[in-house]
Amino acid sequence: MNHNPKLPNTEYSTIYLLGHSESIKVYDSKPDLDIWNAFNKGDEIAFNYIYKMYVTVLFKYGCQVSRDHNHIQDCIQNIFIDLRRKRGQLNEVQSIKAYLFKILYRELIRKSNKSKEAVHQYPEKIPNNFSIEFSQETKLIQQENSQEKIERIQGAINKLTCRQRQAILLFYEEGMTYKEISVAMDFSEVKSARKVIYRALATMKTLLQTKSENEV
Amino acid sequence: MDLLSIYNMKYKDYDIDHFITDEFFIQWIKNPNENNSHFWEKWMEQHPEKRPLVSKAANLIRSVKYADNTEFTDRMYVETFEEILKADNHFRQLNPISPTKISTTHTKKVNSFFPLRGIAASLLVLFCLWAQYEAINFKTDPEPIAEIVLVKRSNPAGKKSIIDLPDGSRIHLNANSEIEFPREFSNDIRLVSLTGEAFFEIEKESRPFIVQSGETKIKVLGTSFNVNKKENGSLYVALVTGKVSVDTQNGSRMTLEPNEMLVLEDGGAYRKTGFDAKEVIGWKDKYLVFKTSSLPEVRRKLEQWYGVKIELKGDFDTKWTYSGTYKDEMLENVLRGICMTSGMNYKIDKKQITLTNPK
After folding, report:
1. What DSSP designation does B100 have?
2. A71 pLDDT more than 70
């Protein structure tokens, strides 16, 4: 018992009701541009919405770059803190997800390499970045595509470059458009995103064909 | 020519490579919405011969997955959110002159333009926040902070009330309960303190709304929930909408989803359960609900609800329970209902009720 009413009680159990579900009701059907502008103007509900919608996928994406979960969590925290501080001066954003992916990727790399030059080399230095798992879900498909074939595809995927795997994952796992991929991967033109994807698929095809011919 | 027929022409000659490089197709597989579903379902109807190809392409797309699938836990969700908000305050509180110092990772250009007016306002807000916190927490202080006028509303047994707050939020205050709040909220926070039970419908806005119940603080931004601190010290927080996370004294943390209820025992133990909305929050809509309630529970509920004293005469089966729901019903009708199924008799003498068991 605290007998001195003047003593602040430091052992509060704190219950946070974040009101995040409410934010969904307000912003769910609005275009990204509007949500972003509201956030830029200081609307906390818009912030809650952005946080709720993207923090989980950001973390997942971060896990494809780094194995250090605390590091990823810190980086996510930092990018949101930074965005909040820059409210009022933020540029317009057409795809919030693609933009957040871009700045998280930058932050992850910058934080793990102090020198700026390393930024662009980094992805190739760690070949395990953006590992792809090729797995089929339904039994039907497994009958159609033999286990052997799946393994072959898996093997071909692993021969792709890190940037190609990154693009493939953004395309198929995240369901991003070419435009969004170009934002997330810091390409100046959408065309570059298309090129990376096409080239990756072409490489895979070649690899698969060569292999099957060898086997025959 | 409408869009659909253009697409029809385009997709008619598609082979699998085309499908797996078509972003509109992938959107439908990965993020189906009304628009793309409508299109593709119709298209498949018109081109049934393409079905096997479409399903093959869809399967290929779905098969590509992240090799690493670590989950972002609820705990991380809340932790990160709190850290982000904390950094805001930290930023305003500690770095009024040189905000760039706080973070080595953020750009200086933006921060150095932080306007002086904003700093002054933040300090003022912090002062108000502190002042209000002091005023509410330490109401026995002989010199309450000027300007903060606290309003206290309390209900005796038998009376419920609705209180509208200056921010548009509404509080349903149950009988035997008391709520205290400032006549005007500060710029940064909405803080009320509660004894007993209340249902809150909080207007969503940027200032957090904090309910203090004993030593527990419940923080929300805009949501509806019920808080009930029982006489034995247990605290029940039932969430209708919104999201909750709970920090207990021993440092563990958990989250509450809508339709979940947190029970915090006096000793610090806690558990999470579902709840029957009518049973827990029906009181605000005048529903008196008994759900396999024991005799002491029935007695306590009736005393609180109608503001009466109930005396028990005779031997009562300890295993006896009662279930029943009454809406806006007179005490006599409720007593009649209870006695009808249990064989008890009741006697009303103004505010004094006697329940007897003839067996």
Report:
1. G
2. yes
Domain that holds residue B180: 150-279
Of A16, A141, A172, the CB nearest to B26: A172
pLDDT in tens, B153-182: 899 888 888 888 888 888 999 999 999 988
* pLDDT at residue B12 greater than cutoff 80: no
* B chain contacts of residue A9, beta-carbon cutoff 8 Å: 215
Q: How many CB atoms lie within 10 A of CB A197?
A: 21
Q: Are residues B182 and B167 in the same domain?
A: yes
- Predicted ipTM of the assembly: 0.80
Alpha-carbon gap: B31 to the closest alpha carbon of chain A (Å): 7
Q: Count chain A–chain B contacts defined by CB atoms under 8 A.
A: 211
* Residue B246 belongs to a domain: yes
The answer to whether B222 touches A45, Cβ cutoff 8 Å, is yes
Q: Residue A191 and residue A120: Cα distance in Å, rounded?
A: 20
pLDDT in tens, B23-36: 989 988 888 888 88
Element (H, E) at B348: strand B345-349
Quote the number of domains for chain B: 4
Say if the Cβ atoms of B64 and A169 lie within 8 Å.
yes
Chain B residues inside the 8 Å CB shell of A19: 202, 204, 220-223, 242-243
- CA distance, residue B231 to nearest chain A CA (Å): 16
Domain boundaries, chain A: 16-129, 132-216
Q: Does A19 contact B222 at a Cβ distance shorter than 8 Å?
A: yes
Residue B305 C-alpha, separation from nearest chain A C-alpha, in angstroms: 28
> What CATH number does domain A132-216 carry, 3.30.930.10, 1.10.10.10, 2.60.40.10, 3.30.428.10?
1.10.10.10
Q: Given B279, B308, B330, which residue is the final one in a domain?
A: B279
Is B334 inside a domain boundary? yes
The per-residue pLDDT for A14 is 36
The Cα of B355 is separated from the nearest Cα of chain A by a number of Å equal to 38
- Residue B137 has its nearest CB partner, among A8, A23, A59, at A8
Query: Token digits for A156?
Result: 């071909």
* Inter-residue contact A132 to B66 (CB < 8 Å): yes
Angle between helices A118-125 and A96-112 (to 10 degrees): 90
| Under 8 Å between Cβ of A63 and B66 | yes
The 10s digit of each residue's pLDDT in B81-105 is 888 988 877 666 554 443 333 333 3
**Residue B167 maps to which CATH number?**
2.60.120.1440
* pLDDT beyond 80 at B119: no
pLDDT digit string, tens, across residues A85-111: 999 999 999 999 999 999 999 998 887
